[in-house]
Design a protein that fits this description.
Elements lengths: L4 H11 L6 H19 L30 H6 L5 E2 L2 E2 L7
Helix pairs in contact: 1-2
Length: about 90
């Protein structure tokens, strides 16, 4: 499997506004596609599909409500200034 120069140029125009070296991009993509073709030749008949090589299990705890908290108590937890029942932050859009 390989891509033509025209396909590569179309990809580069559609995927990025950055100027790139289309010739180098073509070589890289074709190298990746050759590698995938090589992997497709491997017999995986008896191999189970995997999403990870490490067995992972989420150990979730049950959420327990200890007591009801008022909005005023929650706002008091903030180290920021509170104005009109909202946490005031410095202007980040300059």
């Amino acid at each position: 499997m390989s891509l033509t120069q025209e396909q590569i140029e179309k990809l580069s125009k559609n995927l990025s506004k950055i100027r790139i070296d289309n010739e180098k991009l073509g070589q890289d993509i074709n190298w990746i596609l050759r590698y995938i073709d090589l992997l497709n030749e491997v017999d995986t008949t008896w191999v189970k599909p995997t999403t990870t090589v490490v067995e992972v299990e989420n150990n979730l705890r049950e959420d327990i409500e200890i007591r009801e908290i008022t909005p005023k108590e929650l706002l008091a937890c903030s180290g920021q200034k509170v104005i009109a029942n909202q946490i005031a932050i410095s202007n980040i859009m300059k």
